[in-house]
Each structure stands twice: as structure tokens, then as C-alpha cells.
Amino acid sequence: MKKNILVLGGTGFLGRSVCEALVRRSGGGEGRIIVPSRHPQRAKHLRTLPTLEVVQANVHDDTCLSRLIGESDAVINLVAILHGQQADFEKAHVALPLRLARICESAGVERLIHVSALGVTDSPDAAPSNYLRTKGRGEAALRCTAGLELTILRPSVIFGEHDRFINLFAKLQRIVPVMALAGCNAKFQPVWVEDVAQAIVHSLDHPETIGQTLECVGPQVMTLGEIVNSAGVWSHHPRPILPLPNWVGYLEALGMELLPGEPLMSRDNLASMSTPNVATGRLPGLAQWGIHPTAMSSIMRPFLGRNQGSARLDAWRKH
């Protein structure tokens, strides 16, 4: 069993579930789970977990990254961004994996689990968005590293109690009379965050997953319009959905990018949605790893429709 695990991006939405799953895996025994963060004070939700240590570090700094990897037996990379300029995507999705590969090779750390994205292909430069192009180039960089025991996971859109996807659409429908929606017919295969976390931990303890690329998807293909409608129904605030033509959606996204803060939707998001975010069927899925994919309705309906605590408890009991 790999004892000291370095989790990059461990303070995020997926990282929270991965860290909890790693703690359950260790059972409070030997070994450490190391989660670097530039703002460790914001990771209060992780500080109470036994055997887990949140450390102040910048993973884009070679000295910090070398020290962290040198103290680890395996690395899990969850770092990703959805919005930004070309340089931001290159830094997070290409430069960081390149540096990871180089430092792991130098430190003799072979095991690396990398979370990529559904929609990535073997021809990343042909992808429609910065997000997918850079995710693909990051995968390629890792695959070219000799001696790296690599497992790649490609999830569809990830949902769960703390997501910023389903929850956002549910909150919006409490305050707007109509949902004007770009990319209404874009296809997704939503996957529960706990299923993805379980797959990541599974890969740590099963050497046969080395060299594999896993498509992490749920049991149901849904359009964005269907997802938004479901979020409204489950939260008891359904609103009519007004599909926007592509050119109007583009202008709407451009306007959102010009506003302060992180945009609700960007032009790059719309470009990514032009590629169906569903399993190809050419790669193994969760079921092949013994994980039964969980339907979104069984998690988000009780969570959005009742109090959060009981929904969380029901979800864990079911799982």
C-alpha cells in the first residue's frame, strides 16, 4: 500500500471527496496525506481529517514541488481550471503535468494518478476549446515520461453536495423568472463525485490500473437543458427554459467574461460543449473497476429538496 500520498488540488470540490476517501482507506494507520495550498487557512473542511496535513506551498514553484514529491510515495493530480486566458490553461493543464513528470522521474516517484477530462482525444490540437486542447496536451506529456506508472481518469461533469454546477442552476431558478440558456442541447453524462473519488483510491491499490485511461461517467446521458430543468424541479423552483441561439449565447458569455470575478459561463465553456461530454465506449468505465455509477437524481433530488445534512447522510448510507 502506498503510504504517503501527495494530493495536488486537494482543497477543491473533487479534492474534498478524494481526501475523505483516502482517510477511510488508511484507517488512521501509518502514512500521511499531504495537501498543498497557497491559502491553507481556507481548507478548514480538511483540517479535522486524521493523517491529513494541509501545507502552505505553491505547486507551480519547482522547489516546493520537488520537496513535496520527495516526501511522497504516490501523487494524485486534480489541478484544473475552467476559466481563464490561454496562458492560464497552459500553466495549469500542460506546464504543471510536464513539471510533475520531470520531478517524479528525478525523485524516483513512479506512481501518478492524473484527472483529465472527458472529451480529450489523441489529437488534442483539433479540440474546440483551450480547456480540452490543454487537457489533451497534459495527458500526452505524462504518457511520454518513461518509467511513470500512470493512470488517467476522464470524468464527465461532476455533481455532488458541494458542486458549483447543479447548485448554481438551482439557486438561479429561485431568483429569475426564466432561464435563458446557451448550449441547451449540449450532452453530458454526469458522474457523482464520490464515485470518481472511489475510482481514484481504487487505482492506488490495484496495479492493473497502471497504464489505463478510465472514462468516469454516470448511468444517464442528459442535455444541459434537462439538467437545468431537473435542478429546478428538485429544488422546488422550476422555471421555463429559453434556449439561446449560438450567436446570442456567444455574446452572453462574452459579457459574463467582462464582469468582475469568475464568469458563470465563458466562450471557452461554450466551445467545450460543442463536443458531447459522454463516454466513447472505447475505454473502461467505472463498472469495469467494480464501481456501480450513481444516478444524479438519487443524490441531488434529496439534497436539493430537503435539508443538506439528511441528504448527505442518505447519500453515504446508499453508497
Poorly predicted segments: 307-319
Q: Which architecture of the domain at 5-158 and 192-217 and 278-291 would the CATH scheme give at its second level?
A: 3-Layer(aba) Sandwich
Mean pLDDT comes to 91
Outline type:
globular
**Biggest sheet details:** 7 strands, parallel
* Cα Rg: 19 Å
Which fold name is given in CATH as the topology of the domain at 5-158 and 192-217 and 278-291? Rossmann fold
CATH superfamily of the domain at 5-158 and 192-217 and 278-291: NAD(P)-binding Rossmann-like Domain
CATH class of the domain at 5-158 and 192-217 and 278-291: Alpha Beta
Helix content range of the residues, please?
Answer: 40-55%
Number of helices: 12
Number of strands: 13
How far the N terminus sits from the C terminus, by CA atoms, comes to 23 Å
Helix-strand sequence: EHEHEHEHEHEEHEEEHEEHEHHHH
- Proportion of residues in extended strands: 15-25%
Q: Strand sequence of the main sheet, in spatial order?
A: 3-2-1-4-5-6-11
- What structural class do the secondary elements suggest? alpha/beta
